[in-house]
Amino acid sequence: MSAGRSLSRQLLRMGRAAGHGSADGRVRFVALTIATCVLAVTLTAVMAAWATYQERTDRGAARTPVLRLHDGQAAEEAPLRIQLYLDDVHDRQVEVVYVEPMSPDAPLPPGVSRWPGPGEAVLSPSLAADGVGDRYGRVVGSILPEGLAGPGERYAYARPANGTLTAEHALLATGFGSEDAGGFGDLATVRPLSVFLSLLIAMLGLPTGLFAVVATRLGAAGRDRRTALLGALGGGPRQLALLSTGEAAPALLLGTVLTAPALGAALVTDLRIPFVGYVLAASDMRSHAWQLVLALIASPLLLAALVVLMHQWAGPGRSTRPRSAGRGRLVKVAAGSCPVFLGILSWSPTAFATYGATQTVVLVSLLGTVGALATVPAAIALLLSAAGRGVTQLGRRLGWAGTLLAGRWTQGRPGYLSRLVAGVVIALGLLSVVQVYPSMHSASVQGALAMRERFGYSILTVQMPHGAEDRTGAWVEKLPPGAEVAVLDSTLGLANGAGEVKETEDGPVEVRQAVTVRGSCDALRGLGLACPAGKRTRDDPLSDATPALRALLPSSVAQVGVTRGPLAARQGNMLVVYSPQGQALPLGTLKRDALSILGPGALVEGVGQGWIGGAVLLSSQLRWVTLLGVVGVGLVALAAALNCLAEVLRFARSIAPVSVVSGSRRVYVTVAAWTLAVPLCVAAALGAVSAVWVTLPYTTPPRDGELPPQMLTASVATLCALAVLVAGLAALSAVRESRHWRPRHD
User: Fold this and answer.
1) What is the three-class DSSP state of 651?
2) Nearest to 337 by CA among 292, 297, 376, 395
3) Based on the number of CB atoms within 10 Å of its own CB, is 193 exposed (0-12), middle (13-18) or buried (19 or more)?
4) CB 113 within 8 A of CB 157
């Protein structure tokens, strides 16, 4: 037993010594260290996402009102009357819960120590920092973290000053705490965990996997010889595992140590994620600390297992030469599965058109994207390996030593070629997805921004709450001097622009939307409408002379009825407040006065705010795609750089003796061109084709994303230039190495 332990320690020491004995070893040490850090960050990010969603859902369930009365309880006996109000601050959604507690001991939601008094409010810290002031009432406190979905949530509880929350127009609740989290606050806008994890795996997990494979196989030729030698000496898989683990262990441990402080910081303090601005709650991380620590510990263990699996056992009595048989088996399997994933991508547009962007369709589409990016390099490697036979025949026929050697080099090395081209293919794919995905929504975003640019806050709309008709005059009196008011009244509601179909005895009949504009002559003229001479309603067409109404009403409305008269606001119609001079109206002040006078539910918005708010929300969500995509591309680029560096060093040593046989150092340029420049350039061209294929789910109707050809052209040109540079460095290194090479006399 003691001898066995001694042999194990000796093998570990031998592996550690082998890792420090060459330039390849130093490059591999750096690569394995970075790979450990990257894998640890990826695994902890997955666990952090799961922990955040879990804790956020639990807090959301705890604050969700219980909207059912007890048995035998009358509506007037409900302890809480609630009305939800959606607002926007700096184009970001805010949710305000207006509450009227009917007794001093009414149940409190989490994070609130006491109910605000009439005309008071308690705000989340982020909402208070946005400068809303007393818009929802006099601020008397802050919502504690246990009452918020996250540290950055904009949320408030307010109590109306005039008792406008009646049992007839309010939600009746008996308390807080539900089995399921309701769609309140941020919980109503976040994407499902499965979608976020799929994005995380596609944008970060795939590059991390590539980096890990490249790091474990750097300098593989020397380790393959040691593996074969160990097998020839009678060593088995266990001895090989110890040797490989000893070589990789220092780098794996260093990478873990370097990552640990970042995890410690996340457990101690709230961290704001760069670019996206999301605040990662330390309390959520502490609630799942042991899972995060396990993720950190798992990263070096997984890489150690990968190191062992990536170096095959030569077996007893075999040659000490590296094996070629079976080396490309995994590459062939990956290449064989490539058409399956490309087929999924080809089917995705049809699925989106038939079933819509359901969660299942989105996940299957992401599976096709990840699978294609992972397997296309293997297919390209097999094509290049097969082309090596032609290069070999060309060199033999023409008598070119460099071409012959390069053809033989690439002919039986699909694994080497796959690792060489993977960085190019995956980088192009990720860049294309990052470019295309946000562009799917550019039309609506640009339209909303153009509307804001044209009108600003010179035109506002006001939705009237229930029972506020008799208070409209008091609010109008608080309008700034020069502001005009008109009333829009619609038969179908202003949101229904296409009309609706109703069933009658004679069959379906389409009911078109009819809109009437009522106001004083000055108010009507300011909207581009002629004032009627009498009290009868006159129909006026909408045109360029009525830009405000054209922006407010759906395109299906071609004309409006015009009536001169008092406001006569009622439930279901809309007030239009505007400045004839085009000056910006005090939106914040008007919102505060509307909520105070008209009551909860009075919605004051700028033109197109619904579109703009949705565009801002979508833009903030798409920032995750950009952030993860840029990080993923950076990892792929770093992996490709380290791989090319190792190949340059290996190439220089392996090819150095060739000049003795060929009589010319120009052979290095030829070999470098065929083994490095040509594969990388071919990969760039085929990678551009695969990038177009990968983006089919986003660029084919019903989706309208756009992949600029200029971006692909520039990327391919840049990659080809880098390929030539790498080949040139390899040739120069081989020339320098050849000057010092001497035959060994054993």
Assistant:
1) helix
2) 376
3) middle
4) no
SS3 at position 625? helix
SS3 label, residue 143: coil
Is the predicted pLDDT of residue 131 greater than 90, yes or no? no
Q: Helices (DSSP H) in 119-236: which residue ranges?
A: 125-129, 193-200, 206-217, 220-232
Tell me the residue type at 400. Answer: W
Q: Read off the DSSP letter of residue 361.
A: H
Q: What CA–CA distances, in Å, run from 486 to 286, 460, 521?
A: 55, 11, 10
Kind and range of the H or E run holding 140: strand 138-142
- Region 465-484: mean pLDDT is 84
Type of residue at 531 = C
Question: What is the distance between the terminal CA atoms of the chain, rounded to a whole angstrom?
Answer: 38
Structure tokens at 640: 């490709």
Most confident of 176-180, 254-258, 404-408, 670-674: 254-258
Contact assessment for residue 152 and residue 278, using Cβ atoms and an 8 Å cutoff = yes
CB 552 within 8 A of CB 508: no
> Which position has the token pair 């506002």?
460
Query: Hey, what's the torsion of the CAs at 16, 17, 22, 25, to 10 degrees?
Result: 0
Q: Which of 42-46, 218-222, 287-291 has the lowest mean pLDDT?
A: 218-222
Angle at 736 between CA 732 and CA 737, to 5 degrees: 115
For residues 38 and 254, what is the distance between their CA atoms, to the nearest angstrom? 12
Spatial separation of the C-alpha atoms in residues 96 and 465, rounded to whole Å: 15
Say if CB 604 and CB 590 are below 8 A apart: yes
Alpha carbons 733 and 321: distance in angstroms, whole number: 25
Q: How many Cβ atoms sit within 10 Å of the Cβ of residue 647? A: 20
Q: With residue 308 as reference, give the H or E element that holds it.
A: helix 289-309
Residue 314 is predicted with a pLDDT of 46
Q: What number is the average pLDDT over the span 422-445? A: 78
Contact 395, 402 (CB under 8 A): yes
CA angle 271, 273, 276 (to 5 degrees): 145
Q: Three-state DSSP class for 391?
A: helix
- The angle formed by the CA atoms of residues 238, 241 and 247, to the nearest 5 degrees, is 145
Count of residues making up the chain: 746
Three-state SS for 129? helix
